[in-house]
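== Fold encoding ==
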Amino acid sequence: MKIGELARRSACPVETIRYYEHSGLLPPPERLSNNYRAYTESHAERLLFIRHCRALDMTLDEIRLLLDFRDHPERDCIGVNALLDKHIGHVVERIAALSALEALLKDLRSQCLATDSTSTCKILQALGADPCASFPPAAFTG
């Protein structure tokens, strides 16, 4: 199949498919005599696997490792479990960071309950102040 058909079947943009090829997640397809890429069913299956991993918010490096395990079915799955455990830990950390962000935003929102002019808006004043004075350092990651 051509890249357009693979894109339609997988609901994945052509640019993303090319990116996955370039990054080594999808093997390069054979080229037809007219230089078109010729994708196979194995490309579609691999792309589905990649997209499922991305839906679980896995990084490309994590996906690369999982694909390596998938490509070597004789291996022990302890590494797969370890990767998932590590990913779960990252998700827990992100949830905690997002919960802290939510609390900060709610606190910020609570500073302005009126519909006065923006010149006296406590939210705008707080956003213009030194962030370290208004918010704990853990709220800033970069």
